[in-house]
Design brief:
The protein is of the alpha/beta class. It is built from 17 helices and 20 strands. The chain folds into 3 domains: 233 residues, P-loop containing nucleotide triphosphate hydrolases (Rossmann fold), CATH 3.40.50.300; 179 residues, P-loop containing nucleotide triphosphate hydrolases (Rossmann fold, 3-Layer(aba) Sandwich), CATH 3.40.50.300; 54 residues, no CATH class. The chain starts with 11 loop residues before the first strand and ends in a 10-residue tail after the last helix. The N terminus is likely disordered.
Length: 502
Amino acid sequence: MTKIQENGDINIELRDIRKNYGPVKANDGVCLKIKKGSIHGVLGENGAGKSTLMKIMAGYVSKTSGVILANGKEVDFKNPAAAAAVGVGMLYQDPLDFPSLTVLENFMLGQPRPKKKRAPDKKDYLKRLRRAAAKFNFRIDPEAHVRDLTIGQRHQLEIARLLERGVKILILDEPTTGISNEQKETLFNALRKLASEQKSVVLVSHKLEDVQTLCDSITVLRCGKVTGNIQRPFETDAIFEMMFQTKPQPLRPPDVNPGRTLLEFKHLSASGGAGLKDCDFSMRRGEIVGLAGLEGSGQSVFLRVAAGMASPRGGSIFLRGKKMERKNLHDFQKRGVAFLPDDRLGEALIPPFTIAEHFILKRKRGFFLKQKEACAKAQEKIDEFSIKGGPDTLAKELSGGNQQRLIMSFLPKNPSLLLLDNPTRGLDPESARMVWEYLKEYSRNGSGIIFSSPEIDEILMAANRALVFFDGAVVKDVQTRDTDINEIGRAIAGDMEYNADY
């Protein structure tokens, strides 16, 4: 591989990059230039080829054909180490860290060792970690275990680690998904600082507001091809049409005619994160309830207790009038409860299994199923949910949006209660809209829906009712038509004036 001058700034250019997964063309002749000292946005709907292209640039995925140039010289990134040697590093949507290790131990991984030292010097790495954290105002405890960090803190750790390794082009894949506004502002300030130091940032996103706030230039992808290259200032409608060939359509909560009481919590308490503290809650059939709060404030615990996946410490649960706190997951499922987790590949899907194999596992009767029948069932769902892939496509090869569409296809026809942990995480606006149009149909048919989301806008647009959590307690329960983003935001932050009714 051609060597690039050590410690020098670099420009990267991708020419006619193609990546095929069988008949699926994830990238179809993509050209892209990244200039030093710039923040470059890569936009596109889910399945447009953004993440695949960035993984090729970072050496995580091999290209089918095309050329990568660094400072005008051809390079071949056969693995992430080869890309890192040139100065390219990537922060993946789901950080590639080790949850059981400490922050400092994760920071040390992959770092070059000082010459003449056989073993790493923890004190030296601790100084380097603290120096990097201070430079960007990152708040991460070196002795904390990564499993106890928020997504935003895990991103901060990985950025510090990559920069310490000498990365000069930093790629970030949907970095603002699931993080607080404060962590988002810290991240953006760090990226601006990197650009001012003549390092380059590539921001992969579907959030137009993030790209408009941060980026100097944008490349838009659709169906694996470049549909536009734009310099600031950006026009939202023009970008949206490049992404979807249509103008944005507003999302509105459905009209609800609530039925009988469906779910009740009475003085319920539970463990996990901030836990759940003396929670009283009641919902009726047909309602859509959005759970708001900072990460770890109790929303996920609430959902898992309601799904029968976590046991309460105290209090009572009633589902369709039946007491449930001593029941297990299967008992909840028998009474019509369905749960979709936030971690798609970790909990909902099996990464190395094909779409067809997932439908074999979903069979309720028997074990054996002919391959032809499995493929036919998979194709039926692929068509119904517009999944970009085939029956033989592996779950791990699907984009985040297509993974979510596949998971949605597993839902039962007539559930009494749907519980969804951040169902539109990482989805572009049109994919998110498709998810909600589908879920609204369940609501119209009488299903109750409870979902969590870090996006207040989404809760106000998709839910009829908002439940705000702070430190394990429900501090506000309000109809979305009677509130606004400022009131919800202040309640999330623990403003006692806005939480006085609780």
